Amino acid sequence: MSKQINIEEHIAYKDFTISDAASKLENLKLNPVLFLVDENKEFIGSITDGDIRRALIKGVKIDSSISEIVQGNPIYIKKDQVNVKKIREWRKSNFKVIPILDKGNRIVDLLNFKSEKNYLPIDCIIMAGGKGERLRPLTENIPKPLLPIDGKPILEYIIDHFRSFGVSDFLITTNYCASKIEEFTDHKKSNALRITCFKEPEYMGTIGSLSLIKKFNNDVVLISNSDLITNLNLEDFYLAFQESNSDCSILSVSHKIEIPYGVMKLKSNELISITEKPTYSYETNGGIYLVKTSLLKLIPKNKPFTAIEFLDKLIEQKKKVTTYNHVGYWKDIGNHTDYNQAKLDLKFITQIE
Q: How confident is the model at residue 51 (pLDDT cuts 50, 70, 90)?
C-alpha cells in the first residue's frame, strides 16, 4: 500500500549488530525506524535511533546484537483485524511508520503517515462507463474521467484521494473509450496499488456494471462516480458508517435553491402567506456510497440497473440506509460550466485532503 516506502529498507535481521542497525537507520532520515524479523520473517519488534542512543549511554557495545535493544512490545496492524479508530490515535500521537502483518505475523506492508492517513479495510469501485455527452466536443475521443484538470485526469484525483486513506484495491467499470481508461490504469497501478478494469458488454445503467465483479477483498466497498472532485474525509465517513451499523451509507451534499420571486402559500385562491425571495435547502445524493459487500448480490446480472433502483431495493428489504453529510469541497463535473469551475477551484486548492 505504501507509496513512498520500500519494506526491505526498514527490515532488520536477527544477525544484525547495533552498528548495522545504525548504518541502515542513517539512510532512513525521513522515517527512521527498523522492524526486526526472525529467520521465518515473522515480526519481533522495532528499533529507532533513540533506542540505539539510549543503549549506548547505558554502556551497551556498538557491536552487540540488535536483539539487546529491540522494543519487544511494538505497535502493529493485523491486515485482517484493522482498527481504524486505533490507527487514528496512533497518527495523532505522531507515530511515523507502522508495520502491517498477515496471519503468520509477517510484514506484508507498511503504513506511512507521511502519505496516508489510515488503512481503511475497504475495496473501491469507480464507475467510469459514461459517455460524458454534456461535455462534448471535449469527450469526442476521451472519456470524461480522463479529462485533465491542471494537467491531471479527474480519475487520478479520485484514486489519489482515496489512496491517501489507505485504500489500495480499485475496481473500475468501463464502457465508453474503455481502452484509454485501461491504458491509464496500467501506468498507474503498482505492487502497492491494485487496479482492475471491468468492461460492460453494453450500457448497464449507473450501477448495473457492479454485477460483473465477482471477488472482493473486504466486507465493505466504497462506490464512487468517476466525475467527482472532493476533499471528503473518508476516515470519518467510514467510522460513521461503522458506528451506525449501517448496511449502506450515502454521501449527502447540501444544495440550495434561491427563488428570485415572492413565493405564495395559497388555500384555494386565498393568500395565506408570502415569502420574499426564499432559499430552500435540500440534501442531495453526492454520488459516493459505502455498502456492505454482501448486498451487491441484489444487483441483477446482465441488465441495466440504476443506483436509485439499488437503494429502493435496500429500503424494500428493510436494510439500514443512512446518510453522511459532507460540508467540504465537492464538485460534480457534469457539464462545461462545472468543468471550468473545477479548473478554477483547483488553482487555489493545492491539495485535496
A: confident
What are the backbone angles phi and psi of residue 274, rounded to the nearest 5°? -140, 135
Span 248-255, average pLDDT: 95
Q: Enumerate the β-bridge partners of residue 161.
A: none
Distances (CA, A) of 301 to 208, 209, 214: 7, 8, 11
Buried b (16+ CB within 10 A) or exposed e, 330-350: bbbbbeeebbeebeeebeeee
- Cα separation, 236 vs 254, in Å, equals 18
Full DSSP string of 124-142: EEEEE----GGGTTTTSSS
Find out whether the peptide bond into 121 is cis, omega within 30 degrees of 0.
no
Model confidence at 169, in pLDDT bands (50, 70, 90)? very high
Distance CA 88, CA 92 (A): 6
pLDDT in tens, 217-232: 999 999 999 999 999 9
What's the per-residue H, E or C state across 183-239?
HHHHHHCCCCCEEEEEECCCCCCCCHHHHHCCCCCCCEEEEEECCEEECCCHHHHHH
Model-level pTM?
0.88
Q: Give the number of other CB atoms < 10 A from CB of residue 177.
A: 21
Q: Which three cell numbers stand for residue 106?
A: 509477517
